[in-house]
From TrEMBL:
Organism name: Spironucleus salmonicida
Name of protein: Dynein light chain roadblock-type 2
InterPro entries in the cross-refs: Roadblock/LAMTOR2_dom
Top-rank taxon, per record: Eukaryota
Domain Roadblock/LAMTOR2 as annotated: residue spans: 3-93
Family: Belongs to the GAMAD family.
Amino acid sequence: MDIFATIKRISSHESVDGVLILQDDGNVLHSSFEQDADTSRYAKLVLPLGMLACSSIRDVDPVNELQYARIGSMNKEINIVPQGKYFVVTVCSVTDQE
């Protein structure tokens, strides 16, 4: 399946605000956010958190690695999926129905 078709499918869900694909050096490879400010803000905030989560799992068990991190607040939910030197990030709005 084409990666861009998958990103488009994920982005089309009504609660998804945006999808990012980041490199571990902070480079944004793809963003579905409409505003560059949102892309920059989430990339700068989420990447260090994702890297810290990966490092923490390795510190606890060196043969294990982070598969998925889900962070929720009252208004947003951020999902981080590390894959090698890349991170796939989704930012979703939380509704009362969830």
